Amino acid sequence: MSNTAGNQHKNYRRDMRYTGAYVVGNTVRKIQEEPADMAGRTRKKPVSQSAKRNRQKATSTSLGFMFFLAVICLGLVCASVSYLQIKSELTGKAKTLAALESEYSQLKADNDAYYSQVSSSADIEKIKAIAIKRLGMKYATDDQIITYETERSSYVKQYQDVPSVDR
Predict the structure, then answer these.
(1) What single-letter DSSP state applies at residue 132?
(2) Nearest Cα to 128, choosing from 118, 138, 119, 120?
(3) Maximum alpha-carbon separation in the chain
(4) Radius of gyration of the chain (CA)
(5) Per-residue model confidence as pLDDT tens digits over 80-139
(6) CB of 62 within 8 A of CB of 71?
């Protein structure tokens, strides 16, 4: 029972906040009367026609402004889509670059391993002795050596026979 009475008291207080028509006290509740100076006054002032037009003009949007906003929104959407495409392309190229770098390092490691295997297995002095003694090879003389100057790299590739040069 006491709980119901407490709820009624809370409801009464809630109603007081919104309406403000009753005075709270420990006696009989009375309706609060409006002061005499407020009785004759209207709460809203009449608004002039020009003020109404200005308010209407301020709240309305013109067709040109709506078109401008639509163009701006379309431009933002196009820029966003373009940005996302470029970002996706860049991410793909970064992944491809990482894969190629990994492949390059693997090939370089394999090449270095093969080179060290070949250089450790071949005895240069033994090859030189066999070439000179068994095959009859000789060192080149100065008149057999032709020197070429290159502009691009540190060596020259021979694709055909070198013509003889009279010295």
Answers:
(1) I
(2) 138
(3) 139
(4) 50
(5) 999 999 999 999 999 999 999 999 999 999 999 998 888 777 778 888 899 999 999 998
(6) no
- DSSP-assigned states of every residue in 81-120: HHHHHHHHHHHHHHHHHHHHHHHHHHHHHHHHHHHHHHHH
Q: How many angstroms separate the CA atoms of 140 and 134, rounded?
A: 17
Q: Which residues of 32-69 are buried (b: 16+ CB within 10 A; e: fewer)?
A: eeeeeeeeeeeeeeeeeeeeeeeeeeeeeeeeeeeeee
| Three-class DSSP category at 31 | strand
Identify any residues that bridge with 22 across adjacent strands, giving them in sequence order. 31
Question: Which residues are registered as beta bridge partners of 153?
Answer: none
- Global pTM reads 0.38
Of the candidates 167, 131, 127, the one whose C-alpha atom is nearest the C-alpha of residue 147 is 167
Structure tokens at 47: 């608004």
Beta-strand ranges (E) seen in the chain are none
Q: Would you tell me how many other CB atoms lie within 10 Å of the CB of residue 94?
A: 10
| Residue of 124, 125, 166 whose CA lies nearest to 146 | 166
